[in-house]
């Protein structure tokens, strides 16, 4: 088995958006030429604002949306060659809101067993045994087996969602903001559980979040996405020690640690909200970048290799000799 | 005289199973130009407290208070008409969900000018000018054109700014903001918090900030009240509460959150064991005692807020124990 469990090669996804009844449809590029490699057993985090294309990317990874161009590979084999069911055996999702991601009319046992039923795995007795095992794994009491989601708290529901994702023993789990709908004390419990399960079951996480404090706690590698493109991809330690892209820097500065001696940081990002339908010339980030110069408005930035990753900025790396990838 | 004085606010909700004691005796005072943050998790009663101040509680919910005085006016006995004259005029509210709190059937301009036209003797022209002025103030470009747009034509960040502008239309003395930045991206969150701070300085407004985000609280609040199960368990200046938290619940909350540079990546976060107590029926003693590591027999009695510093009060019977641990 290869070390790379998940790979994206130049993946692009476009949508045709209606501009009005009699106007021509416009092309929205939600994901533009994204390449990445996720190693087995790693937590690969994806950060970016809403509208940056994070969720579109997640949908493509789950096989729910085909890419317009480019390739997605699992264990070196293209996802396109497999059908939805085969993909779902290897990759499972945990969604943001455990209040809407669990069918309120099913029991906890039915919810957790559903993937096994869909894939036709095991007899009813074997499935029941697996469900009990999963309840133990995620730390839910067995008496909840016949409860309905409405009887559970937010944290318990998210544990059910995790059990349902893991019952198939997937290799990769796509976590789409798994704790942002939860209270802080519950968030800590779920993050602890995710880390523990990763160690015990050797899971790989593709972790989507806009909470950078959570990403810093969990991730091994971090990709920063802006308007459908990756603008920086680094090791967690490298990115948090010295972000090279001005957008990554702004995101990091926006993290509010509970320190009463500090005020609210000024990111200097400006109020200009990017319209993904009207791409700008040069660097896509230049209208919001506090350090943009004429070069940034004229030329797209190169991909600059860094010791632990890369960034796309005319000025990266700051104050060091640079090697620009051909 | 304080701008707002609340004494012994009690909120009861009759349910089929008995009375739910959502808020059990909350008292605080707020000066002009001050920011008070009320922190707590879901179900702590923080949002109900804010609705109670505005007299916006649902009909079946019962509100009792020894005193609610706004700028010398007694709000416990005020008439509906009197309350309507204050609401949206001298006290305004910024609601949590910018997606649902704006009326989709009216333009931004209609909704912005409504309060001013209704409370002040001004013409349409004057009201529109003020709306444009405030939209610019909250960082919205092309404000004149925005007035003719409908909420669905704006992004989440822009809608939240419109909500803030709307609350400011009549130049209120008090703004109650319920999770004003929770639904927003971190970069926009920083901008909105800046804006609230600037406006506070400029107009001398008092702000009550309701949130569960400890980072936001530490950075913007002058005073903090930590709420648990309907009671304030710790109050004080932001410095006192964050630098020397004395209540075990406050400490637990602070240990739960990952903080870049302080928490060790990948290591378990602090967790508060157990669950929030059921608030239906009679409640005795400290509501946190069955989740607390320091709990003793004295915690079953009613516990008053104890002054532990110049601007610091804690509702805990085991202050001796939390002092040792500090």
From TrEMBL, chain A:
| Primary location group | membrane
Q: Which PROSITE patterns match?
A: ABC_TRANSPORTER_1 (PS00211), ABC_TRANSPORTER_2 (PS50893)
**Domain (ABC transporter): residue spans on this chain:** 6-252
Q: Per its UniProt entry, which superkingdom is the organism in? A: Bacteria
The cross-references to Pfam families, in alphabetical order and at most eight, read: ABC_tran, oligo_HPY
**Which keywords does the record carry?**
ATP-binding, Nucleotide-binding, Transport
| InterPro entries cross-referenced by the UniProt entry | AAA+_ATPase, ABC_transp_ATP-bind, ABC_transporter-like_ATP-bd, ABC_transporter-like_CS, Oligopep_ABC_C, P-loop_NTPase
Q: Where found, per UniProt?
A: Cell inner membrane
* GO MF term (any one): ATP hydrolysis activity
Q: Which SUPFAM superfamilies match?
A: P-loop containing nucleoside triphosphate hydrolases
Q: Which residues form a coiled coil?
A: none
Example GO biological process: peptide transport
Membrane topology value: Peripheral membrane protein
- UniProt family annotation: Belongs to the ABC transporter superfamily.
The protein, known as: ATP-binding cassette domain-containing protein
Taxonomic source organism: Xanthobacter tagetidis
Taxonomy-wise, where does this protein's organism fall, top ranks first? Bacteria, Pseudomonadati, Pseudomonadota, Alphaproteobacteria, Hyphomicrobiales
From TrEMBL, chain B:
Q: Where is this chain's protein located in or outside the cell?
A: Cell inner membrane
Cited Pfam families: ABC_tran, oligo_HPY
Q: Any one cellular component term from GO for this entry?
A: plasma membrane
Look up the record and give one Gene Ontology term from the biological process aspect.
Answer: peptide transport
PROSITE patterns (UniProt xref): ABC_TRANSPORTER_2 (PS50893)
The ABC transporter domain sits at 4-254
Any single GO molecular-function term of the entry would be: ATP binding
**UniProt keyword list:** ATP-binding, Cell membrane, Membrane, Nucleotide-binding, Transport
Q: Which CDD domains match?
A: ABC_NikE_OppD_transporters
SMART domains xrefs: AAA (SM00382)
In what way does this protein cross or attach to the membrane?
Peripheral membrane protein
What family is it from? Belongs to the ABC transporter superfamily.
NCBIfam families in UniProt: oligo_HPY
Protein name listed in UniProt: ABC transporter ATP-binding protein
Which organism was this protein described from? Xanthobacter tagetidis
Top-down, what is the taxonomic lineage of the species of origin? Bacteria, Pseudomonadati, Pseudomonadota, Alphaproteobacteria, Hyphomicrobiales
């Amino acid at each position: 088995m290869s070390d790379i469990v998940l790979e994206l090669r130049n993946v692009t996804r476009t949508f045709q958006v209606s501009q009005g009844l009699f106007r021509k449809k416009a092309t929205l590029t939600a994901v533009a030429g994204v390449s990445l490699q996720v190693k087995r057993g790693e937590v690969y985090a994806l950060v970016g604002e809403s509208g940056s294309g994070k969720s579109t990317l997640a949908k493509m990874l789950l096989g729910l949306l085909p890419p317009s161009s480019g390739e997605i590979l699992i264990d070196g084999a293209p996802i396109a060659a497999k059908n939805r069911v085969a993909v779902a055996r290897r990759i499972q999702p945990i969604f943001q809101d455990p209040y809407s991601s669990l069918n309120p009319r099913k029991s906890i046992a039915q919810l957790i067993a559903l993937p096994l039923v869909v894939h036709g795995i095991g007899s009813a007795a074997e499935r029941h045994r697996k469900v009990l095992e999963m309840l133990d794994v995620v730390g839910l009491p067995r008496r909840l087996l016949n409860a309905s989601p409405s009887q559970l708290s937010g944290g318990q529901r998210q544990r059910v969602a995790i059990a349902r994702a893991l019952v198939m023993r997937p290799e990769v789990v796509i976590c789409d903001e798994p704790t942002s709908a939860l209270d802080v004390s519950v968030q800590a419990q779920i993050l602890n559980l995710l880390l523990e399960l990763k160690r015990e079951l050797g899971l790989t996480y593709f972790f989507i979040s806009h909470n950078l404090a959570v990403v810093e706690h969990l991730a091994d590698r971090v990709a920063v996405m802006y308007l459908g493109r990756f603008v920086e991809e680094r090791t967690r330690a490298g990115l948090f020690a010295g972000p090279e892209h001005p957008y990554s820097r702004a995101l990091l500065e926006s993290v509010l640690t509970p320190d009463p001696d500090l005020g609210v940081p000024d990111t200097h990002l400006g109020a200009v909200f990017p319209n993904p339908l009207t791409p700008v010339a040069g660097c896509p980030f230049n209208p919001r970048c506090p350090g943009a110069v004429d070069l940034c408005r004229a030329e797209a930035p190169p991909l600059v290799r860094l010791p632990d990753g890369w960034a796309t900025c005319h000025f990266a790396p700051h104050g060091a000799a640079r090697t620009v990838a051909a | 005289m304080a701008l707002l004085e609340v004494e012994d606010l009690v909120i009861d909700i009759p349910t089929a199973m008995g009375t739910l004691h959502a808020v059990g005796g909350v008292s605080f005072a707020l000066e002009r130009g001050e920011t008070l943050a009320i922190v707590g998790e879901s179900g702590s009663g923080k949002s109900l407290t804010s609705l109670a101040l505005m007299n916006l509680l649902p009909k079946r919910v019962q509100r009792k208070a020894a005193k609610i005085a706004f700028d010398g006016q007694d709000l416990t006995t005020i008439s509906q008409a009197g309350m309507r004259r204050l609401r949206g005029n001298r006290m305004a509210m910024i609601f949590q969900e910018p997606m649902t709190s704006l009326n989709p059937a009216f333009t931004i301009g209609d909704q912005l000018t409504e309060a001013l036209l209704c409370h002040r003797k001004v013409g349409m022209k004057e009201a529109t000018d003020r709306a444009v002025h405030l939209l610019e103030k909250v960082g919205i470009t092309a404000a004149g054109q925005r007035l003719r747009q409908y909420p669905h034509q704006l992004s989440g960040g822009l809608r939240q700014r419109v909500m803030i502008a709307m609350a400011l239309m009549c130049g209120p003395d008090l703004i109650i903001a319920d999770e004003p930045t929770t639904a927003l991206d971190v970069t926009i969150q920083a901008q909105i918090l800046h804006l609230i701070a600037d406006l506070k300085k400029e107009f001398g407004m008092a702000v009550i900030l309701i949130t569960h985000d400890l980072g936001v609280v530490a950075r913007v609040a002058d005073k903090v009240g930590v709420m648990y199960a309907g009671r304030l368990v710790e109050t004080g200046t932001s410095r006192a509460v964050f630098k020397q938290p004395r209540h075990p619940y406050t400490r637990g909350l602070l240990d739960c959150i990952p903080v870049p540079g302080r928490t060790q990546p990948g290591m378990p976060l602090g967790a508060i064991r157990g669950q929030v107590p059921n608030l239906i029926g009679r409640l005795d003693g400290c509501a946190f005692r069955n989740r607390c590591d320091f709990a003793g027999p004295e915690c079953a009695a009613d516990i008053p807020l104890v002054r532990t510093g110049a601007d610091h009060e804690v509702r805990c019977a085991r202050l001796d124990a939390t002092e040792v641990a500090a």
